[in-house]
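Quiz preparation item.
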């Protein structure tokens, strides 16, 4: 009889800590919150079991009673950010408006935690308990929308990708934006004026100079894109 393969385990598939040993001094929640604060202030590379132990005033070995590895810690961190989204409101019947509202929440969460995009790039999105709640909530919103289940899952994936993209732009420092954007705009205008790119010249002439994009303008652009793309994907 062939041996059955053991399914891979996650940090959520086992108890928070072993039954044996001294009474728990900490919790996964406390450890995860400390790791989030460390990543927010110093970046993802700064998150190590040793650095986290120092932040908590304990030894690294004690943390392994709650978290089996740094990878498990990163999984907990990603899912904790998903838990920041407010999923308490029941779908209101306007699936597009409700989904846009959810996307704005997701974008704001990524902007608060810039390291999350880097983590997802390296490890893929983690479907912990909060992320699964988010996915189920998004599917509930899309219940009255047209399209197949596969198309709806693709739409939710697009929503997450655009939220990450826009959040990355928002976390660009003011100094970088102020120095680079005018120079880039001037270069583009000069190239277009040479006459070798007539379609670009016509578009720039019609559109005029790009407006200064503050948070409200970026949110409005994000919403416009979603309202155009999502119905086209599900139609």
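Solution:
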């Amino acid at each position: 009889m062939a041996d059955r393969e053991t399914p891979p385990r996650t940090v959520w598939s086992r108890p928070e800590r072993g039954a044996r040993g001294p009474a728990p001094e900490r919790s996964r929640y406390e450890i995860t919150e400390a790791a989030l604060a460390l990543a927010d202030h110093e970046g993802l590379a700064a998150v190590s079991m040793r650095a986290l132990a120092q932040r908590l005033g304990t030894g690294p070995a004690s943390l392994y009673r709650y978290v089996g590895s740094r990878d498990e810690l990163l999984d907990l961190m990603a899912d904790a950010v998903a838990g920041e989204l407010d999923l308490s409101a029941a779908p209101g019947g306007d699936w597009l408006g409700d989904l846009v509202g959810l996307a704005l929440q997701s974008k704001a969460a990524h902007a608060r935690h810039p390291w999350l995009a880097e983590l997802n790039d390296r490890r893929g999105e983690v479907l912990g308990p909060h992320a699964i709640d988010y996915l189920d909530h998004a599917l509930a919103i899309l219940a009255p929308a047209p399209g197949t289940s596969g198309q709806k899952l693709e739409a939710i994936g697009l929503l997450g990708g655009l939220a990450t993209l826009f959040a990355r732009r928002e976390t660009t420092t003011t100094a970088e934006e102020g120095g680079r954007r005018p120079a880039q705009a001037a270069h583009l205008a000069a190239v277009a004026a040479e006459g070798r790119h007539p379609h670009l010249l016509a578009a720039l002439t019609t559109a005029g100079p790009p407006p200064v994009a503050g948070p409200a303008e970026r949110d409005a652009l994000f919403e416009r894109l979603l309202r155009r793309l999502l119905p086209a994907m599900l139609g």
